[in-house]
Amino acid sequence: MPRYGLLSGLLIAIGVTQFMIFMIVCEALYPGYNVAHNYISDLGVGLTAPIFNNSIEFLGILVVISSILLYREYKSRLLSILLFLTGFGATGVGVFPEGSPYELHTIMSATTFIFAGISAIAVYRFTPKPISLISVVLGIISLTALSLFAFGIYLGLGHGGMERMIVYPVFSWALLFAGHIITRGTK
Question: What is the pTM of this model?
Answer without folding.
Answer: 0.95
